[in-house]
Design a protein that fits this description.
- With about 250 residues, the protein is an alpha/beta fold.
- It has five helices and eleven strands; from the N terminus they run E-E-E-E-H-E-E-E-H-E-E-H-E-H-E-H.
- Strands 1, 2, 3, 4, 5, 6, 7, 8, 9, 10 and 11 form an eleven-stranded mixed beta sheet that branches.
- Helix 2 (about 140-155) crosses helix 5 (about 230-250).
- The chain is globular and about 50 Å long.
- The mean pLDDT is about 95.
- It binds hypoxanthine.
- Hypoxanthine (HPA) binds next to strand 5, strand 10 and strand 11.
Length: about 250
């Protein structure tokens, strides 16, 4: 691998629209077979002489693309076209089970897909070869381990494992929906984990998720009547970004 290869791509979720620390930054606008990505790919280094990493804002840098309209295929294909092999998804989520309160970071090991009507495969177009990728373990084990080890070196606690439930959004869930997700075994809820993870697998990318818990999911916290506001979500993500940056430095 040459020094100039991009060793990691980071996809930022709600509240994370760039990596302030990027130096030697260039901007790429790759063309893909699947149309336009959410925005440019910023490529740079986190420190002088460090590895090159790529960053893309999943919802666009102005947060203008809602979860169900994100062109997940184009985003991942754009990163792949730059030679990226490892993709770390940052996902802002709600916490369902008791360990996952606001401010917690987690690296889920599994997921359940509740989304609908999204283009969820690279074999969508008539005439494309149909593939059935194994998805029993949806996140890349070695990238997950690398994230967990990086967090240990950085002294940041990240919960190892958990089940991510991907909902359709853009509205938040009802209490009954969250109660059902808890019964299903979900620890975390977010709107963008799928089809992103499945398409990454189809494209042969090593993909893992670092989830930032921004709020208790509806009815899941100590105050069952709590109303979730975007301001609270963004404040909790902002509070976690320094820790996320430290993990990325180590990674
Ligand atoms: N539900 C779904 N997605 C989210 C939430 C939530 O409570 N918080 C942040 N993203």
């Amino acid at each position: 691998m040459s020094d100039d290869s991009i060793q990691l791509a980071v996809i930022g979720g709600t509240g994370i629209y760039g990596l302030a620390e990027l130096i030697d930054m260039s901007t790429e606008l790759p063309l893909t077979d699947f149309g336009d990505p959410s925005g440019p790919v910023r490529v740079g280094r986190l420190r002088e002489g460090g590895a090159r990493i790529a960053f893309m804002a999943r919802h666009g840098e102005a947060h203008s693309v809602p979860p169900h309209r994100i062109n997940y295929r184009a985003n991942l294909a754009a990163l792949k076209s730059l030679g990226v092999q490892r993709v770390l998804a940052l996902n802002t989520v709600g916490g369902i089970t008791e360990d996952y309160g606001p401010g917690v970071l987690g690296c889920p090991h599994d997921l359940i897909d509740y989304t609908w009507g999204r283009i969820s495969t690279i074999c969508e177009e008539p005439g494309s070869e149909v593939i059935h990728v194994d998805f029993g373990e949806p996140y890349c084990r070695s990238l997950r381990q690398a994230v967990l080890q990086a967090s240990m070196r950085a002294g940041i606690s990240v919960i190892d494992g958990g089940v991510y439930g991907a909902t359709q959004g853009p509205r938040l869930e009802t209490r009954a929906e969250i109660a059902r997700m808890r019964r299903d075994g979900c620890d975390l809820v977010g709107m963008t984990g799928m089809p992103e993870a499945g398409i990454a697998r189809e494209l042969g990318l090593n993909y893992a998720c670092l989830a930032i818990v921004a709020n208790w999911a509806a009815g899941a916290g100590p105050d069952p009547d709590e109303v979730i506001t975007l301001d609270d979500v963004l404040a909790n993500v902002a509070a976690a970004t320094a820790d996320v940056a430290k993990i990325l430095h180590e990674l």
